[in-house]
Design goal:
Layout: H1 3-16, E1 22-24, E2 31-36, E3 41-46, H2 51-61, E4 66-71, H3 76-89, H4 92-99, H5 101-109, H6 113-125, H7 132-142, H8 146-152
Parallel strand pairs: 3-4
Antiparallel strand pairs: 1-2, 2-3
Helix pairs in contact: 4-5, 6-7
C-alpha cells in the first residue's frame, strides 16, 4: 500500500471512531500524523523503510503523547484495536459514552466489543496481585451480558490500563 492510501485508510478509521484529528506532515511524503489532542494520542502513518528516521522526529516533536505507528505493511484490522486501546487510556470510551450514547451502547452490546475490552484488560493486568480486584470485576463481567454490566455500572467499559502498568 502507498503512503497516500494509508493516509486515506487511517483517516477513514478515525472518522468511524467519531474523531476529527488535526493532520500534520512532520516528514513530508514519508509520513502523516493524525493528532488527537483530546486523548493525547498521535496516529502516525509511515512507510516502513523510513521508520527509524520518522520515529525520532515524531517523538521529539510530540513529547508526552501516546504514539501509534501504522506502516504501509501493517494489517489495519489489527492496528485498529491498538489505536482504540491507546485512545481508551486517554478517556476515549468515557467521551464516547457521553457524546454518542447510542453508538457506545451498540458497540458494547451488539458488536460484542465489551468482551474484547475485558480480554485486553486482563492481558494488561497479567494476573498481577496489584490488580486482583480489577481482575475479579472483569471476570464477573465476562460471565454477564454487556447490557447487564452497563445497567449495573455504566462506566465499566470507560477505561483501559496503560500497557505494562
Amino acid at each position: 500500500m502507498s503512503i497516500e492510501d494509508l493516509e486515506i485508510e487511517i483517516n477513514t478509521m478515525l472518522n468511524a471512531l467519531q474523531l476529527r484529528p488535526n493532520k500534520v506532515y512532520i516528514v513530508k511524503d514519508v509520513s502523516v500524523q493524525f493528532v488527537i489532542e483530546e486523548f493525547g494520542t498521535i496516529v502516525c502513518g509511515i512507510n516502513r523503510t523510513d521508520y527509524v528516521e520518522v520515529k525520532k522526529v515524531v517523538e521529539n516533536h510530540f513529547v508526552d503523547y501516546r504514539i501509534i505507528y501504522i506502516t504501509t505493511n501493517d494489517d489495519l484490522s489489527k492496528k485498529r484495536y491498538e489505536v482504540i486501546w491507546e485512545l481508551m487510556t486517554g478517556g476515549y470510551m468515557r467521551w464516547l459514552r457521553y457524546e454518542y450514547p447510542r453508538l457506545f451502547s451498540n458497540l458494547i452490546s451488539m458488536d460484542n466489543f465489551g468482551m474484547k475490552i475485558i480480554k485486553e484488560r486482563l492481558l494488561r493486568y497479567n494476573n498481577r496481585t496489584k490488580y486482583v480486584y480489577l481482575i475479579e470485576q472483569n471476570e464477573w463481567a465476562m460471565r454477564n451480558s454487556g447490557t447487564y454490566v452497563l445497567s449495573m455500572d455504566p462506566g465499566f467499559y470507560d477505561s483501559m490500563p496503560e500497557l505494562g502498568g
